[in-house]
Design goal:
The protein is an alpha/beta fold. The chain has ten helices and 15 strands.
Amino acid sequence: MISHNLQSADPEESLSPEATTLAKEGGTPIRTEPWPTYDKGDRLLVAADEEAALRALRSQRLFRYDTRPYSETEVGRFEQEVSRYFRAPHALAVSSGTAVITLALLSAGIQSGDKVACSAFTFSATPSAILLAGGVPVIIDTDDNLHLDVADLERRWTPEIKAVVVVHMRGFASDMEKITAFTKTRNIVLVEDAVPSCGVTLRGQHLGTFGHGGAFSTQSDKSINTGEGGFLLLQDEASLAKAAVLSGAYEGRVFHHVNQEDFDDCALPLYNFRLDEMRAAMAHSQLQRLREKVQRHRTIYDEVTAGISKIDLLHVRQPVIPGDGYLGHCLNFWVRGATVDQTRWFTQSLRAEGIDVRQLGDPEDTNIRCFWNWRFLGTVFLKGERLEPPGS
């Protein structure tokens, strides 16, 4: 499978009109300009974002808990707007997407040794967050379109599994109808790792609002970019209180978030996952443009995939609902019938032409979105069999 980050690139930009020899074999690359991605210097911020950060800096109040009413802090305003935008009862802004997943699990009562299911196709932060919460990751297979395989989840189910972390990987929604039904019938916790899919809706409902908690990131290449950061959506105030204390709302500061006067904030440890005022100000500014950004991603993605779909050799990843539930910032496709070596040659050829792609599953590429590179978990099993990298 090949993965390509579209970002905000114009598919017609910087293309050479003619190419007779592959660049890999000495010809002129089709694309002569660097692909505009964050790590190559593409700028995603606007003047309003800069001014928001400067506003927070000029205030010289960089800690969100001070003498101001919480609703007047940058973090407080951002949390209120996030709750409104996503139509979620509660929001908590913190330091990273990994921290958010951890807080979602801990606020749901996951305890040391509890098993937590998650997809085999995700960034390694997902199983890492499960470990950070004290859980034991149970890796679930994916279906032919890289969504969590609910059939495999049902096969591997045991009462020891206390939660499921479903990942909307590469901006594609998982099958939430089946997954929510699965968790509800077994009365287990559902957490959504919506880190790669901020702003995506499925049947009109925002990802991150289907279960106990929804985890989002504002790391540099996400829909909202503050360099680092994240936010948690929660359905009930009791969970918000737990998450707030764990994130660093100590010595009564939790009551900036909830009105539970009898809540014992000294009964929980402090992990200090707070978000600062400057990043909250930048995130709030960018949230105003999120709907427009998602639509731009989708427009470019639909144009590109319409062309690729005409090539019989290639198969583009399909959403769980045709035309719905995807962000469009990342293109995943397969070369039909190709071996690992053939796919590697194809990927290398595209890169030589100036088109950034990556072969997920290349044994020479330590891609930590692939479960066999999560060596911190030890030996990983699926369906009772030891998992090996493709081609091994």
